[in-house]
TrEMBL record:
Membrane topology type: Multi-pass membrane protein
Keyword Transmembrane helix applies: yes
Protein name as catalogued: Monocarboxylate transporter 2
Keywords for the protein's UniProt record, in alphabetical order: Membrane, Transmembrane, Transmembrane helix
Primary gene name: LOC102074415
This protein's GO CC annotations: membrane
Length: 428
C-alpha cells in the first residue's frame, strides 16, 4: 500500500495542480513580463532617469532568482502549498507598496520575492504529481505565462488609463491574491508520505524485513533537507552550465528584435507583428513539445538537445535577414524552438538529478542560471556598441539614436506596445 501511495498519481487530482500552476505562471511571470507598461508613469512619479527606471525589472528578476533556493528549501522543510500562499501574500504586498508610492526598490524587491516564492514551488509540485506525463504537464503549466501575457498587455493599459498607475498596481495586487487560492489547491502530496515514513520508522524495529521494504518504497520521496551538495555532482554541474549559456544567449534576441527591424527600415506596424509571431509560436512550441514528449518516442534529453541545436541554428541565420519576410521566418523558428526549450528543460532536470533531489536542484539551477541572464544582455549591448550594427546586412556607423529608438529601457516608445513590453522583460 505504501508503494502505491508513494508513486505519482500521473493524472486525477494532478490536473487540478497543473491548472493551478498554469494560473500561478500567469499571475507571476506574465505580470513581470508586461510590467514595462508602468515604466513611464513610475519614472515621472519618482522623477528618475530612464536608465535608473530600467533597473526596475533587473531588481525584480535578481530577487526572483536569488529567492529560488530559499523557496525550494522551504518547500522541502514545509509544503509547496504553504510557500505558494506565502508568495501570493508577498506579491500583493509589493503591489500595495507601489500603491502607497513608497521607495520603488522595496516595491520591486518584495514583488520579486513574492514571484519567486510562488513560481518555484508551483513548477516543482507539478513534477511531483506526474511521472509518465510529466513533460506534458510541465508544458501546459509553463504556457500560462504566454496565455496571460496576451491578456495582461491591453488589460494593464486599460487599468492605467482608468485608475492611474497606483490604482492599477493595487488592482493587480488584488488579482495576484488568487495565487493563494491556487496554493490551497496544491494538495501536499509528498508531506503526507514524510509523516507516514516517520511513523513507520518509529514503530517498526530496525532490522525487520517490513522496515526495509518501507524504506525501499519510500526511496523516491524527496529528503527533508535542502541538498547544497548537488554542486559536486558532474551531471548537475554540466546541466547548470547549459543553463548559464542558454540564459546568456537565448533570451537576448527579443531585446534586439525591435531595433534590428528598425535598422532594416521595416515599418513600425510590421515590427509589432513580429512580436505577435514570436509570442504565438512560443505558446505553440511549448504545447506541441509537451505533447510530443508525452508520446515517449524520443528521450527528453535528446529532445532538448535537438531543440537547442535548432534554436542555435535559427539564431545564427537570423542576422542574414534583410527584409520583413525573412526576419519573420527566422523569428518564427526562433520563437518555436525557444518555446520547446522552455517546455522540456524542467523535465530534463528531473531526469538528471532524480525526483528525490529535484526541489533542491530547481532552486540551485535557477540561482546559477541567473548569472547568464545578467551577463548576456549587457554583453550583447557591448557587442552592438563595438560593431555599430545589429546584423550582417546593416551598414556600419548607423546613428545609435536611430538604432535604439525601439529599445525597451532607453525610450518610452516600447512601453506603448504590450507585446514589445512582454518580450523586453523576458524571464524564462
Amino acid at each position: 500500500m505504501q508503494a502505491k501511495d508513494s508513486s505519482p498519481p500521473d493524472g486525477g487530482y494532478g490536473w487540478v495542480v497543473v491548472v493551478s500552476a498554469f494560473m500561478v505562471m500567469g499571475l507571476t511571470a506574465a505580470v513581470l513580463k508586461t510590467f514595462g507598461l508602468f515604466f513611464v508613469e513610475i519614472q515621472q512619479h519618482f522623477d528618475e532617469l530612464a536608465s535608473t527606471t530600467s533597473w526596475i525589472t533587473s531588481v525584480t528578476i535578481t530577487v526572483f532568482h536569488l529567492g529560488a533556493p530559499v523557496a525550494s528549501s522551504l518547500c522541502v522543510q514545509y509544503t509547496h502549498r504553504r510557500v505558494v500562499i506565502t508568495g501570493g501574500l508577498l506579491a500583493f504586498s509589493g503591489m500595495a507598496l507601489g500603491f502607497f508610492g513608497l521607495n520603488m526598490v522595496w516595491l520591486f524587491a518584495t514583488t520579486g520575492l513574492g514571484i519567486s516564492f510562488s513560481w518555484t514551488p508551483a513548477i516543482s509540485i507539478v513534477s511531483h504529481y506526474f511521472s509518465k506525463k510529466r513533460a506534458l504537464a510541465n508544458a501546459i503549466a509553463s504556457a500560462g505565462e504566454c496565455a496571460f501575457a496576451f491578456m495582461f498587455g491591453p488589460f494593464f493599459q486599460w487599468l492605467i488609463g482608468q485608475y492611474g498607475w497606483k490604482g492599477a498596481l493595487l488592482i493587480i495586487g488584488g488579482i495576484q491574491l488568487n495565487i493563494c487560492v491556487c496554493g490551497v489547491l496544491m494538495r501536499p502530496l509528498a508531506s503526507s508520505y514524510f509523516l507516514e515514513a516517520s511513523h513507520c520508522e518509529n514503530e517498526t524495529p530496525s532490522g525487520n524485513g517490513a522496515s526495509r521494504t518501507d524504506k525501499e518504497d519510500q526511496s523516491p520521496i524527496t529528503p527533508k533537507t535542502f541538498n547544497w551538495m548537488l554542486v559536486r555532482q558532474p551531471e548537475f554541474v554540466l546541466y547548470a552550465i547549459f543553463g548559464i549559456l542558454a540564459a546568456m544567449s537565448f533570451f537576448v534576441p527579443p531585446l534586439f528584435l525591435v531595433p534590428l527591424s528598425y535598422s532594416l527600415g521595416i515599418d513600425e506596424s510590421w515590427t509589432a507583428s513580429l512580436l505577435s509571431i514570436l509570442a504565438m509560436v512560443d505558446f505553440g512550441g511549448r504545447l506541441l513539445c509537451g505533447w510530443y514528449a508525452n508520446l515517449h518516442v524520443t528521450k527528453s534529453i535528446h529532445l532538448l538537445a535537438m531543440a537547442i541545436t535548432l534554436i542555435s541554428t535559427s539564431l545564427m541565420l537570423l542576422p542574414l535577414a534583410n527584409n520583413y519576410l525573412s526576419l519573420a521566418i527566422f523569428t518564427g523558428f526562433y520563437g518555436f524552438f525557444f518555446g520547446t526549450t522552455v517546455a522540456i528543460h524542467i523535465t530534463v532536470l528531473v531526469d538528471v538529478v532524480g525526483m528525490p533531489e529535484f526541489d533542491s536542484a530547481l532552486g540551485l539551477f535557477m540561482l546559477i542560471r541567473s548569472t547568464g541572464g545578467f551577463v548576456g544582455p549587457p554583453l550583447a549591448g557591448k557587442l552592438r556598441q563595438l560593431t555599430a550594427k545589429y546584423s550582417l546586412k546593416e551598414e556600419r556607423g548607423m546613428q545609435p539614436s536611430s538604432a535604439h529608438k525601439g529599445m525597451c529601457h532607453h525610450t518610452h516608445r516600447a512601453a506603448d506596445t504590450p507585446l514589445q513590453s512582454y518580450y523586453c522583460n523576458a524571464v524564462l
